Amino acid sequence: MRRSVRSTAATAVRRRPLVTGRAVLLGGLVLLLALTLAGPIRQYLAGQAELEQLAAEGRELDQRAVELREQLERQSDPVYAERQARERLTYVLPGDRLVVVVDGEAVEGDAGTLASAGPDEELPWYENLMQSLADADADAEPSE
Predict the structure, then answer these.
(1) Average pLDDT in the 18-29 region?
(2) d(CA 27, CA 18)
(3) In the chain, N or C terminus with fewer CB closer than 10 Å?
(4) Euclidean distance between CA atoms 127 and 46, whole angstroms
(5) For residue range 95-144, what is the model confidence (pLDDT) as tens digits?
(6) From the centroid of its chain, how far is CA 93?
(7) Name one GO biological process term (predicted).
(8) 54 is a domain residue
C-alpha cells in the first residue's frame, strides 16, 4: 500500500506543464501561417481600394463627358451662341438700343450710330499713356 500512496503523490507533484512542446509547435505554425498570409491579404485589400478609387474616377469622367456633350449641344444652337455673344462680348444687332458709359456719362444711340470716342484714337499709344499719366498727376495734386 505504500507504493500506491507514493505513486499518487509523485504524480500529484509532477503536474503537466502549462506549455507543452506540441502547443509551442502549434503556436509557431499558426504564427508562421499568419505571417505568410499577411502580405497577400494586404495586397488584396490595397487592390480592392484601388479598384474602388478607379471606379469612382470612371464615374466622374462619365459625368464630365455627359456635361461636355450637353455643352456641345447648347453651343451648336444659334440662339445660344447669339445670347452668349450679346452677354460676353456685348455684341448688338442693328436697331438694338445700346447704352455705353464713358467717364461717368451715359451715351445712348443705336448700334452702329455711336460717334467715335474722339481725338484720343488718333494719338499713338505712348502719347495716350503720357496723357493718362499727366491727367492722373493733375488729379493727385491737392488743391489749396
Answers:
(1) 89
(2) 13
(3) C
(4) 67
(5) 888 777 777 776 665 555 545 545 546 788 899 899 989 988 887 666 55
(6) 40
(7) cell division
(8) yes
Question: Phi-psi bin for 103: left (phi > 0), alpha (psi -120 to 50), beta?
Answer: left
- Flag whether 87 is in a domain: no
Task: Give the model confidence (pLDDT) of 33-87 as tens digits.
Answer: 999 999 999 999 999 999 999 999 999 999 999 999 999 999 999 999 888 888 8
Q: Tell me the residue range of the domain where 47 lies.
A: 21-78
Q: What is the 3-state secondary structure (H, E, C) of the chain?
A: CHHHHHHHHHHHHCCCCCCCHHHHHHHHHHHHHHHHHHHHHHHHHHHHHHHHHHHHHHHHHHHHHHHHHHHHHHHHCHHHHHHHHHHHHCCCCCCCEEEEEECCEEEEEECCCCCCCCHHHHCCHHHHHHHHHHHHHHHHCCCC
Cross-strand pairs, 97: 110
- If one counts the domains in the chain, the total is 1
Domain assignment present for 130 = no
Joined grid coordinates for residue 86: 450679346
